[in-house]
């Protein structure tokens, strides 16, 4: 099942686009969950919420709703994947109230971090079997068949990213896909036009088939572009 959503949901300029003007922010998550069945939570990159917060999110979303959490920058950018077990355990312990709603974890690596396969392996080992993990390396040295083979053996998804056009590498390393759409070139900026959305739909189906499984998240939030593009992509990808 290909799930389509946005990166975050608490954007004030989404009023009138996704949220009614008179809807209090305390009810935005429920409203979001009526429009989309998955959400990439970026706030966990900056600060780990309390267990009570995750429990609140679970209580406000349907049973089949899928949360994806972005791993802490302490693990990826400060520790640079060194000694990963404690930060991974802290994330999973806090997020435990999500239960089956925790669908995956995103590891976005800093653009200044060259390839470190041993550190990556140790980090991936810290996650329990069965929990999906996606990796978004951004230093050019990671673009190797050795990395792709490493990820494929673990069924770990290499993130496919777009910022004003597809960013290599565009490799299938898992039975499921993870796509992040950061910035399109249509007007008004940073919107994606139908041509780009159709191209991405064809790209995903070309790599994973018509019954592709995974996630597509739109991170071009200004002006509600992410909402409109996610809705449109969901229509085009079916």
SSE run: EHEHHEHHEHEHEEEEHEH
The main β sheet shows up as:
10 strands, mixed
The level of helicity is 25-40%
**What is the CATH architecture annotation?**
Alpha-Beta Barrel
Q: What overall geometry do the principal axes of the alpha carbons give? A: globular
Helix/strand-derived class?
A: alpha/beta
**What's the total count of β strands?**
10
Write out the strand line-up for the largest beta sheet, numbering strands in chain order. 6-5-4-3-2-1-10-9-7-8
Strand content: 15-25%
Distance between the termini: 10 Å
Please tag this protein with its features.
10 strands; 10-stranded mixed β-sheet; alpha/beta; TIM Barrel; 238 residues; 9 helices; 35% helix
Characterize the structure shown.
Helix content is 35%, strand content 20%. It has 238 residues and is of the alpha/beta class. The protein has one domain: TIM Barrel (Alpha-Beta Barrel), CATH 3.20.20. Strands 6-5-4-3-2-1-10-9-7-8 form a ten-stranded mixed β-sheet. β1 (2-7), α1 and β2 form a beta-alpha-beta unit. It is globular.
Short description:
The protein is α/β, with parallel strands linked by helices. It is built from nine helices and ten strands. The chain has one domain: Protein of unknown function UPF0759 (TIM Barrel), CATH 3.20.20.410.
Set down the secondary structure blueprint:
Layout: E1 2-7, H1 28-35, E2 38-41, H2 43-46, H3 51-59, E3 66-70, H4 73-78, H5 85-95, E4 102-108, H6 117-125, E5 132-136, H7 145-154, E6 157-158, E7 160-163, E8 166-167, E9 177-183, H8 194-208, E10 214-218, H9 225-236
Parallel strand pairs: 1-2, 1-10, 2-3, 3-4, 4-5, 5-6, 7-9, 9-10
Antiparallel strand pairs: 7-8
Helix pairs in contact: 8-9
